[in-house]
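Re: adenosine-5'-triphosphate structure - here you go.
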Amino acid sequence: MHKSYGRHQVLRGADLTVDPGQLVAVVGENGAGKSTLLKALAGTLATDSGRIEVSGTLGYCPQDPVVSDNLTVDQHLRYFAAAHHLPDLRRGNELIDRLGYAQYRHQAAGALSGGTRQKLNLTLALLHDPDLLLLDEPYQGFDWDTYLRFWDLVSDLRARGKAIVIITHLVFEQDRFDQLADLTSGRLTPRPANLRQPGQTTEDDHVRH
Ligand SMILES: Nc1ncnc2c1ncn2[C@@H]1O[C@H](COP(=O)(O)OP(=O)(O)OP(=O)(O)O)[C@@H](O)[C@H]1O
């Protein structure tokens, strides 16, 4: 994919393949073009050239929540369920329980805390149980318990064969991934995960400290 904003070439032949059941991290410096890449993959931003092939359904959790301030959590669920032609709200209810915010179901999104708003954002992206998930720093604002619940959820999705792409900045979580895709100078360089550098800490180390 190629994408420029004016004369600023952000993506210069970025290339990524994600298989079913694979969990891929997109890493890179601030401004490297990670969100641009995800928007392009999600189809919300037109590329200048390139090709995107998605087999199956797609779920996209953008960095900025897509929620409407005046609708309640429940109303969001019903609205998105109708858009996806879902027969019921079973999956939405399950996600609300797993992310632990059932007590806010009848609250307007505009009155939710940042973390709870992000839980709703994530729920809406997962509502139709998509085959490919594009998550742009999906745990922003999550407390530690929710952060762990999030990774439980991701493990289940991966085990069920979902392909998952997550933009992350957190070095300590990088050994959770099957692959790291490093976005530098507009191109993606794949490197296997689980290559911890000496002195690099993991989440478990953080828990112990
Ligand atoms: N709509 C836009 N118009 C012009 N320039 C843009 C636009 N969106 C992004 N950019 C620029 O493109 C570059 C890549 O932005 P992008 O948000 O994709 O980076 P990122 O890697 O996601 O950054 P971060 O880690 O800070 O979230 C930045 O220099 C940004 O200023």
